[in-house]
Protein 1
Amino acid sequence: MPIVTIQITREGSTPGASAATAEEKAALIKGVSELLLDVLNKPLDSTFVVIDEVDTENWGRGGLPVEQYRRQQNSGSPE
Amino acid sequence: MPIVTIQITREGSTPGASAATAEEKAALIKGVSELLLDVLNKPLDSTFVVIDEVDTENWGRGGLPVEQYRRQQNSGSPE
Amino acid sequence: MPIVTIQITREGSTPGASAATAEEKAALIKGVSELLLDVLNKPLDSTFVVIDEVDTENWGRGGLPVEQYRRQQNSGSPE
Amino acid sequence: MPIVTIQITREGSTPGASAATAEEKAALIKGVSELLLDVLNKPLDSTFVVIDEVDTENWGRGGLPVEQYRRQQNSGSPE
Amino acid sequence: MPIVTIQITREGSTPGASAATAEEKAALIKGVSELLLDVLNKPLDSTFVVIDEVDTENWGRGGLPVEQYRRQQNSGSPE
Amino acid sequence: MPIVTIQITREGSTPGASAATAEEKAALIKGVSELLLDVLNKPLDSTFVVIDEVDTENWGRGGLPVEQYRRQQNSGSPE
């Protein structure tokens, strides 16, 4: 009876999208449920999936909000 | 000093409601805090409760987003 | 399809017990599942409960590990 | 920069195993990281995965500890 | 490779603010990442931080929604 | 009334240590509670901290269990 929580930033993966689409979310739910079936033999019906979308200003890495972190990485400045 | 996290889908439990009401949330907070007091003798004051409302398209079961899962269950089709 | 996570310190609620007993855990699971049924009309079968026991040295309050915090509270020293 | 948390009961999926094996865990980590790459174009390197193994007496469903719940399901008694 | 989750109520810390500001969030991300570096020698780059803002009606303490709890504390009524 | 969850791998930060020490944990609890006080004016007493130690085989990055990931990074092989 697995529970899978997927935390992602709230932003699009394609131009023009501002967040993961319903289709992308459905693909995550399907994929991870099938993974639990394949690897641990957990019935699809017993796996719960929760997708948690986090605003980019609420996500940090490298001591910085994620958008600043990415700009820093891209600029080649030392970390 | 318990912490209780209650994750529910963001939808109403009664016709016309689109989410749990403030009264329902207060009843969850009261009920679960009293449960910890009754079962484990934890003072009410030391229990924190967080209710996390999850959009239905972000909640999966049976490999499907929850609304599709429910339609499938109701239609009697094999799982 | 609620998910309830109950985080408690790993310690007994009665003399001689070093952790919540299986009976106490069963009572938490039963109580919180019935609460979701009563308040939000969620079927018992669709509620998952996870109890997470946390070692006391891994739990902090008031800027202190919880056992130090309790000693400080009981000694009446200013916080 | 996704974070995926996979909560499973601490029990084996094959005879003689008392928990998921290191190989099964590695397969979960690989599979879910590749899923995020495929669906949302997240680089493998930016996905963190945490597997949280929960003792069966700490996992509840249907208002019961999970092992009791399974026995009830298998016995065909009304829920 | 630590993951730090900071759950706070969605409310301002200064007059006129209705939530933590982007600057306050950046200060939390910076501070906690540096703490992990100082205490456990974790490189800044390997620490992920997620800030989870919770509506006040979804946060409970003392068996009450947090705003009621605070009014009760301030009024000096017995808990 | 913040709740801070710090997830770290269960391993030592100094030679001979197999996990974070009680002193290191106390420093994390103190540091993060003071950070919430400094940045958001949250009283020390109202911040809860939970440290969650995760076995290295249960932690993944780059599609690999973390110890394999680190070896790969150090060997300079392409990711």
Note: Residues 60 and 66 of chain E are 5 Å apart (CA to CA).
Protein 2
Amino acid sequence: MAAAESTAHDLIAQHRPTLDQALDTIRTRAYWSPHPEHPKAYGGEGSGSLSMAEGKAAFDALLGTRLDLGQPGTDDFVGGEVSPYGIELGVTYPHADADVLLPAMRAGMRAWREAGAELRAVVCLEILARISARTMEFAHAVMHTSGQAFMMAFQAGGPHAQDRGLEAVAYAYAEQVRTPDAAQWSKPQGKRDPLRLTKEFTPVGRGVALLIGCNTFPTWNGYPGLFASLATGNPVLVKPHPRAVLPLALTVQAAREVLTESGFDPNLVALTAERPGEGVAKTLAVRPEIRIIDYTGSTAFGDWLETHARQAQVYTEKAGVNTVVIDSTDDYKGMLANLAFSLSLYSGQMCTTPQNLLVPRDGITTDAGPKSYDEVVADLAAAVGGLLGDDARANALLGALVNPDVKARLEAAAGLGEVALPSREVANPEFPDAVVRTPVIVKLDGTKPDAEAAYLSECFGPVSFAVAVDSTGDALELLRRTVREKGAMTVGAYTTSDDVAEAVEEVCLEECAQLSLNLTGGVYVNQTAAFSDFHGSGGNPAANAALCDGAFVANRFRVVEVRRDGA
Amino acid sequence: MAAAESTAHDLIAQHRPTLDQALDTIRTRAYWSPHPEHPKAYGGEGSGSLSMAEGKAAFDALLGTRLDLGQPGTDDFVGGEVSPYGIELGVTYPHADADVLLPAMRAGMRAWREAGAELRAVVCLEILARISARTMEFAHAVMHTSGQAFMMAFQAGGPHAQDRGLEAVAYAYAEQVRTPDAAQWSKPQGKRDPLRLTKEFTPVGRGVALLIGCNTFPTWNGYPGLFASLATGNPVLVKPHPRAVLPLALTVQAAREVLTESGFDPNLVALTAERPGEGVAKTLAVRPEIRIIDYTGSTAFGDWLETHARQAQVYTEKAGVNTVVIDSTDDYKGMLANLAFSLSLYSGQMCTTPQNLLVPRDGITTDAGPKSYDEVVADLAAAVGGLLGDDARANALLGALVNPDVKARLEAAAGLGEVALPSREVANPEFPDAVVRTPVIVKLDGTKPDAEAAYLSECFGPVSFAVAVDSTGDALELLRRTVREKGAMTVGAYTTSDDVAEAVEEVCLEECAQLSLNLTGGVYVNQTAAFSDFHGSGGNPAANAALCDGAFVANRFRVVEVRRDGA
């Protein structure tokens, strides 16, 4: 057995059970994850992974270094990341000459295609395993680029992101093996001999895929596209957000290591960082070599990509306005606690955080008696205040504001209406320069035209609007209009009425939005679990794709058939 | 059991075995069809289908009538089809007021969604069964709109088109049931109670689908998009080519009958015909209600749709330039006979007909000894001449030219180079007005820049270019360039060399084109079989989708999830 064959054999033996479990789970959509989300699972004898302390040390050792990935066509090393916690990372990364790098990335495509779907899948799983072993190092990299608190950076940036990557590999594999490698075709011709053909079917990648990373969830939002493209035979060029390069640079490093060790061209995965204001994504996106683009970010640039990058398949997650309809509840405390957590987590800087809370102005019925609009809003404000009253807990939940724009929006929000809960500045003793703020809740009258401009725009950050509406029926109409016009990654609703539940479900089915109903426990509207929950629907303006489904992978490759006479 | 439930039960009992066989065959890609392609299978006691004579009578009875489909928003009846065989059809069809019809088409969406994937699939199969029973009537409708000869109109417009429709239903069903209807999700929390959610998943259609039909294969090219959209929960508005309305109008009629009988809104499938020069496709394509478009036709309008109908998923099959590389053969006679048939069938008016035959100018090796370029071309011309020497056989193979543009192109082609085989006018005793022509073969020098304009454009119709190239290597480079720049629905190659075979395969894999290698028997490069062969690749400029695969169906619907606390 040749060395490469032996490696392939080993990788399949090692990872096929995980792939099979992932394939099974995307069908059942039960709970499963191979990536532990408790810090204690990392490090220690035989674990093969860095402990929390080792991860911190590995991260510290990266600071101020040049991350030379050994890529062709590197014309410079650039970088200027400043952590939302105040640290200057001082890491520099390759800046690519695309005219050299892109052809070099295509050079390995034939061998990668010839490897076939299964070997591509297990190579991807090995990359994820290497990343998983460095989860604690990634946790710090995500924390100090996104501003997420450590625990969230570890969980969402580590195991949850790895889950989403694995999920994409499973979908990609399943899609490719729907067509067999070969077929014998024999068509009866009555008394004459049958017509016979031998057919071979090969999944072929489309070309170089471009991953345009985001600032807030560089790994979680990046891995689905990266692994879906790679697993379907495409080289992937990673262009991280300039403020969140490190997590994706480490990802590219791990991928290049594994590709090299398994006998493939490391240039199948490459990174390009950019200089401030260079806007390299715009230049790269329309190059003829780029045939797939994955993007998470603003609606403006997402729309630009969809309009101009016509040579590519473009998958976008853009802005949206997430709504929670509050009609009634049989667990008032649970509802308030659940919402308070949803609004607070990562200072509301999730694309899934609720923004508009629609409450009938005549109030709602609850297990604690009827509550007026003002009471509901005051009680929610108190719940958020209570949750974040302790600075240590507030820091652990909120993290830091990711950039000055968020802070500016937060400050401006107080002027949009009556402030039900003012934002509070929280000191971070470990990182005195971190900008930590609790959410603001602003009361708006849903029938006032001047309020509409506020609640019908995405106000990304720790800003929520408690919108008074005339009735639950009006809330549903506003929900429908919001999803249709502005898009939504999530919708929440609280009701004890079967009729209202059915009506809100119907709006979500018709407008294509993912609905969480009556969440009062430890699952939040802004969280989705890989293998089970869809992230976005791909059917409203917030995103043209969902994570993850068949549509997310099926058009990243094509099947080429070669047929010959005879059996 | 209610009436609707009983109908659903019956339809499932009746059609589920066929659906299962289709699902199995798209996985094995072996030969299968439930639609017989021999005329004798139609008609007779207990067959439930029209015989050839009954089909002719049914077609004759349609002539000169108004086909009132009972659609809302019909503001006029229009029609002006003239058969390529000279008959004026005189049938008029509904012309729609889209402002009335489109909302009416959306009205049935909820019930259609709630029916679920399986019931939608078997309703589609029942529609196909009704169409199958009228195959002989459709045969005449296809013949007298496309100009295909009767046997081809019967086979390609009947059973083969129905196969492609069924294939699309199978893919659509398989795609929708990849996600279960419901799931229980339970996430362990150490010593605490697990987190538990109940999840429901519903495939939801995107909105109204628009099918823009073509002149040459109204049913074969129309059914995949029509049935893929309908089976995934979308209403379908059919806008036929003005010269080929009848086959799709009969299709809509059958669909509306079955929808009504099975308790659904017939307006889920509707037709709109247009007045001469109205260009209604352009107006409809950009309406906000239209969320899916399927189109077969010119590159210019396909590109226009892709650019402007941004609110819709757009699936296009456009023009291409199909190449056959002739390097060597061990069955010279078989090759010539196979190519002669491919060039002649339906007067070369197939999107899959070879156009450019690339032959090394120093000649090729064959089992009949070396043959010079001139000899190969002369022998091919003789083979075509022999095949079409008898007028009756010529009429049966060629059919009629579909429109005056094809005739004009054919006449102009003789001026592009040395004519190796002149086109011959064939008299049709049954239809004296039919324009029947044999193919022209024109010799071109592949190295001459002035020849390039000819062989690098699609010359749709019975025109082939025998292009002299310096070597097989040059042929492969020209093949690559042609596919990359102009697109191709098919590629053919003849070679006895393993190295050349591998090289041509590699070009097709890299440029994403479907390859037929060394066909010398009764299968032709321009024919593909549903359930087994892909029609187009979706990866070169000739088409952005393939018939049929996961990508063709996966984005016609989205999955909406509703999750609730608790198990």
Note: The mean pLDDT of chain B is 97.
Protein 3
Amino acid sequence: MNTKQIISEIKEKQPNIKSVVFVGCGASKADLYPAKYFLDGNAKKIRVSHYTANEFNYATPEAVDDTAIVISASLGGTTPETVEANARAKAKGAHVISLTRSIDSPLTKDADYVIYHRFAESYGAKLEKMGYCLELAMEILDQFEGYDNYEDMKEGFEKIYNLADNAAASAKLYAKKFAEDYKDAPVIYVMSSGATHEVAYATSICLMMEMQWINSGTFHSGEFFHGPFEIVDKDVPFILLMNDGRTRNIDSRALTFLDRFDAKTTVIDALDFGLSAEIKKSVIDYFNPMLLSAVFRVYAEELSIARQHPLTKRRYMWKLEY
Amino acid sequence: MNTKQIISEIKEKQPNIKSVVFVGCGASKADLYPAKYFLDGNAKKIRVSHYTANEFNYATPEAVDDTAIVISASLGGTTPETVEANARAKAKGAHVISLTRSIDSPLTKDADYVIYHRFAESYGAKLEKMGYCLELAMEILDQFEGYDNYEDMKEGFEKIYNLADNAAASAKLYAKKFAEDYKDAPVIYVMSSGATHEVAYATSICLMMEMQWINSGTFHSGEFFHGPFEIVDKDVPFILLMNDGRTRNIDSRALTFLDRFDAKTTVIDALDFGLSAEIKKSVIDYFNPMLLSAVFRVYAEELSIARQHPLTKRRYMWKLEY
């Protein structure tokens, strides 16, 4: 069943959907963000919220009932908090859709609908979790409220995976340079805006802290001037994931400041990878996070090589009960 | 006009309010979070969103029209992005309520309603921005959908400011110890959960990065195990703002892990300051951020003294155009 059919079947069961609740942990939580951002910005009736799974479990929103769609994600399908969130959502009568790459994993148990995505096959495949979730959001908006740019979005989905794959392949040399420049950085900040806000977040808490044990902080680039910019000094390392879309000016303003004070800045700019040549302006905002995720993955891989610290190396995860 | 009268007048003008949008920057954005969290968790019909002001300006949500209430905040009332957000909201017909301490400041120009709060007078006064915003959220919920715990909340508001003032006063010795222990820390992480999530955020980006130029990162304590915890090692400095309420288990789980690996952990626990003796269990979640903000302010003050770095010291703010 594709995303359109899933939403259409839910609508037959419950024409009066009031809330969409996105639930996940870590990178899987962040992968839900573009869909959440899309609905926040475009819906006029449907409520939208986004929780780390245990927040959902311990303080379950009142709106979770048979008028709610709960969309959850877990790469391996075993994240205990997210599995529990599905059970709670189901017990309250919500329509549960889950994204995972693992057939019959625990996450699928209480899901009414499961969307399987790929991951390891290619840079593009790594984006399917984020992309299918955004497709679900698009279907929800279109089927329950109507969406004028539906065809432009559909066309975007046909192009983004290849575009991201090609962008990632073309980024290797820049990524090697980044890795050499940042391999000894004691701390690295990551920021972005718009739909890409939580790609910056995942880059910071997963790629930097979890997978490289590098100290890191992250914030929306619009928040940069309201606190974080006072940390800027010569050689303080920043990564700016720069959007080609409505919030570009927010990212640019931060970049101008970083350059003015000689911060050690790495910019990954969607404009450089031809996003606007392939994706219509009406919907380009929502495709930035996919492109920028794919490109930054190459940067993280090169960093792990330069630091001789594999991305899969862990101190605690997979080794302990906690 | 008090918060009840403001919402009642808006309801007379527009009985069909569909969305509440919270807009601010930095600490003022974070001060709106408990209200946003309250509505996310308790409303069943009203849509809720929360933006840093330039995100709202460059990608204004479609729902901003005469069925929306926009609630904005700026301490001095001059934050340019937030002032502009008010103008945009007003131009689209939204009902604009603003919180500031500065009479007739630019923020008040396009606000239909202004709530003035105090700030410098006491630790309790610093909480009024957050508290009045939460009161607005409570009134919106009660008047548009009904709220069973309204009287418990009202009673909480009568007690929280004094309670927070007393808690702050009693924290001084612990705060001095913290300041001695953390004054040379190269990086400090801050986390919390529930309604207090963005108190942790503001502590990190404002009190640490902006006001002390200390490297810092922040995340929800439920996210700790999904990335950030791999940074934990002996003596890595963490601050945990611990809630007395439904999400306490999330904070406790993080604390257990930090203790197990001898991280340098400072816990500020709402339980220690008697929150549950004064605030009813039905609504206690929403008062944690006020209490914990007041107490941590004392910690930040002591840190600034130990580091001989006043909280008002800036490199860029107030000194440059940017």
Note: Chain A has a mean pLDDT of 97.
Protein 4
Amino acid sequence: MARKTAPDSSRRSERSRRAILDAALELVGEVGFGKLTIEAIAARAGVGKQTIYRWWPSKAAVLFDSFLEQSGGAGAEITLLDTGDIVADAKDVLRATVDTMDDPKYALPTRALIAESQSDPELGAEVNARVLEPQLAAWTGRLRAAQEAGQIAPDADLRVAVEMLVGPIFHRWSLRTLPMSHAYADAIVDQVLGGIAMPPAPTPAPVATPGPTDS
Amino acid sequence: MARKTAPDSSRRSERSRRAILDAALELVGEVGFGKLTIEAIAARAGVGKQTIYRWWPSKAAVLFDSFLEQSGGAGAEITLLDTGDIVADAKDVLRATVDTMDDPKYALPTRALIAESQSDPELGAEVNARVLEPQLAAWTGRLRAAQEAGQIAPDADLRVAVEMLVGPIFHRWSLRTLPMSHAYADAIVDQVLGGIAMPPAPTPAPVATPGPTDS
């Protein structure tokens, strides 16, 4: 029997890699992070344990790659849509976030990592560095472009603004206080941009008074 | 030996009740909600198991009373400070929230409940109904008073505004993305009220034109 050629072997590797990433994501949603094992991932993916250990040092490392795969691929820099209209673009991204968080494929593993991170700050720090901060940085970048285009006030704190956009979504999703919706995403964007304070009363038109003339 | 008089017995009951509530809060922070038992609460509080079962049907019920005790007592309606200045009052409340969330006595049990609620939506719903929603309702009430006083735009969505205030705090605390601070609380309030959009250019002063006179 002929030995496998390189292209075949590489296709087979890619198939195994995908199967492992999918299995890790499914399993952590089913059993939680604490009970997730490399053995179970290998069994679900139909590969040997040694195949996983050849590519990843730990179950956490497998999981992070599973999440990164979903948000554009490991190592890929995330950038947000920029049509020049910050309100429309922010609504697009936040609506997509609502859809993703409502999808059990993504929601269950995310809940498992959040639950575990509550009592394991080191895991939480890894999740932040590998998965969350690149997304927050992409938001900050998009807001900075809007600021440079004169659509956002020059003294606005952009990091705080990002947390005002994603924080309400995360609060409602994580605590399940109310259903999420595109209308919720839109209302957040409108109020983050426009504020909720009563707009200042229009300045009264200056009373025309005779003044010194210009020469 | 004389039998205990009623006042003594009532004082002793109150002492036991406080010991039980404190023990439940400490223990859930130490071992998590899943491993919390009525037996362990009784042992830590120095009371018999039957004393706890006489007053509470479950460990969750004990815990909710522990949280309510901290936020003003079970059954007490929560209202927020109203000095007439919504910006100052909101900063006061949000700074206090930052301080509470940074206090391990409150933070550890809260993290334990949040972790458990991720995979137990029924527990999450109870936490919301008993502990969280009364606090969100108090915020909404304070914003409504400001709206009636003409400080908040009449068309602002107050529920979304509340989540824009507490969501960023919860996001940063729960995910430990950055340290919390009073400056963070202040920035959130300022940007939620004022918005981050570039203020519209001032309307040019109307050109004085001769108009119809008033009689």
Note: Chain B has a mean pLDDT of 88.
